[in-house]
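pls read this protein.

:::
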Amino acid sequence: MKIGIVLQARMGSSRLPGKILKIIGNMSLLEHIFFRLKFLRHNATVVLATSNLPQNDIVEIFCRKNNIHCFRGSEDNVLERYYLCAKYYRFDHIVRLTADNPFPDIEEIDRLIDSHLEAGSDFANSFEALPVGVGAEIFTFDALEKSYCEGKKPHHIEHVNEYMLEHPEIFKTIILDVAENKKRPDIRLTVDTEEDYRKACYIVEQSKCKFITTEEAIRLCLEFA
């Protein structure tokens, strides 16, 4: 059994161009994510999946410098990019992360993987209770392949998980429950706007620890507000 963590990343954000390499504290946004993934308990292969557009050459250079697997595919067909990436690396289970989220909850990703494997689910996620940008999802390769073959609408192609979310009758789905002090879906810990970026910088600058827990990020986010 091979678990992959596929991080989708591209430079061409419309609202905050180049955000994935913007500096937060003393590391780029991407570096924050890969630093946190080092604490994952599960043995997983991490791949950064970006597009073939020339503007993303710098992302591939970042991967080479940091000894990170890099896969390049379609800019617009993200579902295809994920499917071909998972097929190339022969992943049986794929954790999906996005590169605009500098504070993924690693403890909850481990719990999500455990729950997914124990339940034999096709698709599992931890989005509903955690702050925006902290949760993750995992799906089997078979579920991804079925989505790729049957999900032909524009939103299926753009968002990877939409076909699974729309068809719970096809995909055995579980939702991870989390501790009460992490249940703040009203809080944004993603970086999509300039204000989000300033908030992320504030959290990193005010934290006393290099590894910022979700609980601390929530507290500092409320201070920033």
Q: What stands out?
A: Residues 106-119 form the longest helix (14 residues). The two ends are 44 Å apart (CA to CA). Strands lie at 3-8, 23-24, 27-28, 45-51, 69-73, 93-98, 123-125, 137-140, 173-175.
